[in-house]
Amino acid sequence: MSKFDFLQQQLDDYENLQSHQDARLANKLQHVQAWQKARMQQTHADFFAIPAHQPMAHYFLNRLYGADDFNELAHQIGRFIRNAHKVEKILPKSALQTGDAGVELAVLAIQLDEQVAKYVLDNYPSDTPLNDDMMRRAYLAVDQAEPRLHQMQLLETLGEKLDKYVRSAIVKAAFKLSKGVAYRHDANTIYDFIDDGFKAMAPLHSAQDFIATFTAKEKQIIDAVHTGHPTPFQL
């Protein structure tokens, strides 16, 4: 079994998104993603402002939630899979497992936000600016409590992988040595995606601790949305 099989499934899920075929939905998805990022920045402002937390906060907001370059990453994953027999040994297995977790999170975030975007597009005039109450109603209508909690669980798993692998001198050395080969095989986007997670981890005592604090607040908001709190995003 190829170590790219899991990435193939993520690529399939990404390519099956409706927004790739619907320009209006794609545009609304961008608005939803922008709202999500702004909301997270506001919710976690004090936590993200701590200097040691800023690289991981940037990784969350720009890699795991609506990454602008995810199309290129998906294209590169597809190319790798088509040439798996040539590139199986480029990236260490442990580093690729961390990348798997990050890619899965990124795809899931887009899938969930696309559902929200579709609801907003179907129920409000297209030029209506997003606001907290619209998003609260959208969350309830598409009933994302379980998927959003699963998203938090995946984040916690990513934290475990980062702590396990980034703290290993052997893994770090092997990953660093693989950079030249990865770049020569046009795997720079995949390498950089994983490397950004490793670099974000560097200033932290523990990625798991950082993520646990983040997910605890997010779970509180998810619960508030689905138990009828009138302003869940202001908690």
Automatic annotation (TrEMBL):
The name this protein goes by in its record: DUF8198 domain-containing protein
Entries under Pfam families matching the protein: DUF8198
Domain DUF8198: 18-232
Highest taxon above the source species: Bacteria
InterPro entries noted in UniProt: DUF8198, FFLEE_fam
